[in-house]
Write a structure and sequence with these properties.
This protein is of the alpha/beta class. The protein has nine helices and twelve strands.
Length: about 280
Amino acid sequence: MGSHPHDPPMPVPVTAAGREGLEALLRAPRRAVVALDFDGTLADIVPDPDQARAHPDAVPAISALAPEVAAVAVVTGRPAGVAVRYGGFAGVPGLEHLVVLGHYGAERWDAVTGVVHAPAEHPGVAAVRAELPGFLDAIGAWRGTWIEEKGQALAVHTRRAEDPEAAFEALRKPLAELAARHGLIVEPGRAVLELRPPGMDKGVALTEFLRERDAGPVLYAGDDLGDLAAYAAVEKRRAEGLPGLLVCSGSAEVPELAARADLVLPGPAAVAAFLSRLAAELRE
């Protein structure tokens, strides 16, 4: 495999396991799965999540890479259909076999059919949806916080609060108690606390997808605490002798992820450039 003189250099993972994962992917791409988070990895973080869109370079990079590997999956906490719409993934040449695993794998969209498969709503989500506005108001946490409707989950954002970190910490315990009363769990993220049903996380979703595809090398890229479960799934495979590469779309907000990554890239633009560089290597 070669490269052209004008191509940017391929970033080098800082860990031996990461270098082995990248080499294995380049050596056996037809068995490789590339799995990617959406917000913060393919799309820049924005104050209003409804305004999030894939970075302009992301879809061209993925559509160049997808035909060279066994599969590309987007693994996200968003509803699958919303991720497809905000990502601009539908009907793109090269993405015919893209899969979007939404709501941490509870929902699934396959490009080949264009259909979303989703479970029935958890009754606890409906109960919390009705209770949450008054609950926040009663504990004096309404100002500056707001609720995002996610279908199979609800998210409370603190990014617009006067002190986002203080609001986040003040809400953690009461929201965990509210969630527990209705059979839900709280998933913390970057200035957001998500109330959702238990049993599914990005690690479970990724593991099931890799098993379904009988995958060899795997690349996983993420940016937030919810991606730690997927990191753990890749680390477990590596302990079993199956190579993998962990990429962090870098942010000082989530040092836990960066500390476990093999390769830290400074945001979605750099992730797209890396995927594009990978595609160029594999086409040589």
